[in-house]
Amino acid sequence: MKFEFDFRAGLLPFLKVVSHLPPSNFQFDAELISDDPFEDGEDVIGLDDLGEVDKTKGPLSIAGQMVVLYIKDHGSNALAVINGDVEAGRRVHLAYCSTLEKMERENKFDRYHLSRNPKRKYLISGSKYYWGDEIVEDEAELAICKNCLNFLDYDGYRQLNQRDRTSRTRDFDYDRFFSVYSSLFKKMPKKTEDDSAGYVEGWRQISLEKRFKANFTCQDCGFKAPPQDSAFIHVHHVNSDKTDNSDANLRVLCIDCHKLQPGHGHMWIEPKLLERFRKAKREAQGRLTREGSNTFCMDYIDPALRSPANRLFKLLRQTPEVAYEHEENGRIVFQADVAFVNLRIGICLELTDSEKRFAEKFRWTLLTHNEAMNFTASR
Ligand SMILES: [Zn+2]
Ligand SMILES: [Zn+2]
Ligand SMILES: [Zn+2]
User: Fold this and answer.
1) N or C: which end of the chain has fewer CB within 10 A?
2) Are residues 155 and 209 in the same domain?
3) One domain for residues 233 and 205
4) Measured distance CA(113)–CA(47) in Å, rounded
5) How far is the CA of 291 from the centre of ligand 3 (A)?
């Protein structure tokens, strides 16, 4: 399920340098949000309209935390869906897709439900029989909305054939999804688990030795952390069993590559650490350019912006720079996480209207994730 990128092949010599293996573990910072609409211990809330939901940031969010949206009422299909007919069920939405837009416009549904900790099963309800008014309510498996995956182009969804698309909607790893987009959100909405939970005693030492042996180099993308920033590199448990510290089960991965692994609690990186990490990746990209390589590697870009970056890359036929800093008279005046420098177009994880207007003074167009996904080159 690796993100596919056309020009990756050009980087093979670089990737071969990689030795094996990864980390201090990511941090679950329990920075709770003051206007959190979820009550303590509650993972699902109902809403009558979508006014409070932030639809502009890629994944749907409320009060700075990512959520998924579903419709509880399944009408006369409820019983079939409860009995396992996933195709008869309503879809779970991840983003403000065309379906959701239409639903909102037509005000079709009584109540939306938001979940911040989704599992495969959702509580649904409806009438027991087509002709009756007896109500059923139970948990049922629901599939992910195709329009959402298509809008986000999650994991290269747009290039998949129909069969693969269908399996992506059924076989969906929520935690991985939240990890991929975590950089778009400044706060960790919920402490998923104690960050030391499940690790064996002495794990820190095991992790450090493993990373040391790997020369603090990511086994997937080949990024090497500078000595003072060993926290850029993690150690991942391949089979998700944190007590299995055998060589075969441990993989040394950088923050970006670790986010793309399936099967564990979702990962959120503290913004200051993330910023240093992005700069280090920028330097790695710069080194490659100085060595005369004109290739561009998706692995330098934050996973949250890979789909929009790839989209603009194909549209504009320009190689982007990562963590670009724009200087005027020797001073840095704005930054863009991904920048098509010759065309003066940038994509930012975080972007306010005033930053946008400011950049326009230098004839730069800065885009959010969603704007980049909708961008057309009619300039
Ligand atoms: Zn959708
Ligand atoms: Zn990596
Ligand atoms: Zn892991």
Assistant:
1) C
2) no
3) yes
4) 6
5) 32
